[in-house]
Design brief:
Blueprint (H helix, E strand, L loop, with lengths): L16 E7 L1 E3 L6 E3 L3 E9 L2 E9 L6 E4 L12 E7 L8
Parallel strand pairs: 1-7
Antiparallel strand pairs: 1-4, 2-3, 4-5, 5-6
């Protein structure tokens, strides 16, 4: 929301890498709860060191989510905290 995030001590909160995982999501009740697909295949974006790379994610019923670049090669993340944001397909992401 345009403001810097800080922890309880006023220190900046940051991530070395942000992964945006696009997936299908649907609202299932009047409270706004969502059913979010976390298995299957979809688009992903990887933001690190001021650069954005587009690729994909895949996950079966068992195992971890795998992230690959558009070339099909596994993505190597920068050292440090990694945030994974799961968002509905079509969500617009703005990078400052």
């Amino acid at each position: 929301n345009g403001a810097e995030d800080t922890d309880g001590h006023g220190q900046s909160v940051y991530a070395a890498t942000v992964v945006v995982q696009y997936t299908s999501a649907q609202t299932v009740d009047t409270a706004g709860r969502k059913k979010i697909a976390t298995t299957g295949y979809g688009k992903a974006s990887f933001i690190s060191k001021g650069l954005k790379l587009d690729g994909h994610w895949t996950r079966g019923i068992r195992g971890r989510t795998q992230f690959t670049a558009g070339t099909g090669d596994p993505v190597t993340f920068a050292a440090g905290p990694i945030w994974i944001e799961v968002v509905p397909n079509g969500t617009e992401i703005k990078i400052k």
